[in-house]
Every structure is written in structure tokens, then in C-alpha cells.
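Protein 1 of 2
SEQ + STRUCT:
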Amino acid sequence: MKNENLFKVLILIILFISCSNQDMENTKNNIKNPKDIENIDTGDLPTSGSYSWSFKIVLSEQKSTHTFFSDRIDYKMEGGIYSTKYSMKKISYEKDKGKWIGKDEKGNVYVMFFKDKTENSVTIYKHKCKKGGLKEAEDFEKPSADTTDDHGWNVYTLNGGSTNDEKLNISGEFSNKKGKIYISDDYVKIGKLCLQI
């Protein structure tokens, strides 16, 4: 009798350990480590960093900055004409549309669209849903590329990065008695040495 009860207890312990190990394995497979999170494809939505766009109003320079986090986007506008700062908590993001919806501390709802993300820049369109709140944001369609509503589409540069959009003031072939140099927007060639810009 003792052996029979001992055998039953052993079976129960083995089943319990087996189920616990399986649950632990399932949990491990569902938890993303930070490196996995960094590699999730978010389309054109930046997952971190601060991106800025500078422009002039009258004779004053303004700087618009979005700082990206997994659950929110912090916004800051600085300049001589207007300054503000707020945080928008993420409500939703549709990768296929590049459409992000968020809400600030005052209850204002914003819809943002992202496109043309590169290593150092992203193009952003932002609309404040003044009349219809969340419903307005959900129904808001991606604007055309040439729209001027809400300041239109703007290229934001990663702070500390470079867009490499500046074109060289000179290009072509230059030579003297010692050799030739070829310069273009994409490369510089000196003899057999070619440098990609």
C-alpha cells in the first residue's frame, strides 16, 4: 500500500514538473528581449530617438521635435513665435498605413502618418483632431503628397544624424598635370581610388 501511494505521488510530481516546464517554455517564447523588440518591423515609424524639423515663421526660426518611445511620442516646439511641449500616449498604430493615433494629457487626439524612413530621417504628417477626437482620427485618410494642410509633409532629421541631402556646389572632372579628379553628388574619384559619398 505504501509503495502504491508513493508511486501515485511520484506520478503527480512528474506531471506537475512537466506541466510547469512546458508553461515556462511557452512563457519564454512569448517574452521579447530588448534586442528582439528593436528588430520588430514597424514600417516607417521610428521606435526611438528624437527627430527635428526646423522652419521659419516671419523672421524667427522654429524647431519641431518628436521623441519616440514604444508607448508614446513626446513633442516639443521651440522658437521665438511659439513654444509648447506635450506627450502623446499611443492609442493605435497601423503599420500598413503608417498611421499612428495618440492622445495628450489634455485629451487632444492626434493622428500622424510616417513615410520614407531612412537611417537618419523620416517624413511626418501630423493632424490635431479638434472637432471629432478619436473618431476623426480613425476616419482620417492618409494625405496626398502635395497637401499643405497642417503644414503638409515634413522631413524630420534624427538629432545627431545627417540627411546627406545637401548637394555639392561643384561637380565634374578637374585635372592638372598630376592627374584627374571626378566629383559628383554620389562619389569622388581620384585616380583609381573611388569614394562613395
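Protein 2 of 2
SEQ + STRUCT:
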Amino acid sequence: MRRAIALKSEPAPYYPPRARWYGKLRYPWFAVRREMQLEVIEQRAGMSVINIVLGFVLPGLSYAACGRRITAGAVGVSWGIATVAFMVAADHSFANIARMAAMSLHATSVLYLLGRLMPQAGVGERFMLGLATIFTLSQFVYVGRA
């Protein structure tokens, strides 16, 4: 005795959907992520690409993205106070101290982020990376003499 098998009109759950011809035009960000291998960076750092980019720009955000909220708040508030003090005391010697405090807080935040991105780096590489970060911030972000 044969049983009649009813054919289902819907596809089986294990059959993946196919990409449409307009997929690359509609979602260009996915092609960029695939070409630049941004998933590997996200997995290594444990945070999204947007948080990584903002971690380089905003001091303290790299700590917040890694779950250290108190440290992030302390660095962010200290950097804000140092930046405002630098702008207010532009012609005084205190402005140099405020600028160096803001720059060192920014460099500390960037170095924490770079440490998350490159955990295999040795002591010498981290030292040279720290010098390069301080030099880059002093020449391109915190430019000028107080």
C-alpha cells in the first residue's frame, strides 16, 4: 500500500534564500564590509566598526564600548574639563598644562583601543605605538602653541 506524499508549496527550512540581482546596489555597505574584512576587526576588538572609529575620535568612548562605563565617564569628563580650561586660559601657562592633559587622556583612550585591536603586540611594539600615537595627536589634533 502506497501513501500519497503531499507536496508542500513552501520551501524546506534548510534551503537558504538566494540573493537577488539588485542586492549589491541596494546594500553597498555589506560589500564594503566584505572587501575590507571588517568582521575580522570587529571580532578581534569585540566592538562594532562604528564604535572603533568613534573610539579614535572621542576620548573615553573606547572604554565605554568595552564595558568600562565608569572609566569612560571619568576620561570623558576629565578631557572635557581640560579642553575647556585650555580654551579659557589660552594665553596663560596653564593652557599648556591643560592641553597636555587633554592630549594624554586622548592618547590613553586611543592606546587602549589599539591594545584591544592588537593583543599579540609585544612590549617594544606597544612602546613605539604609544610614541607614534602621542606624536600624531600632538601634530595633527592638538596643534598650536598656547
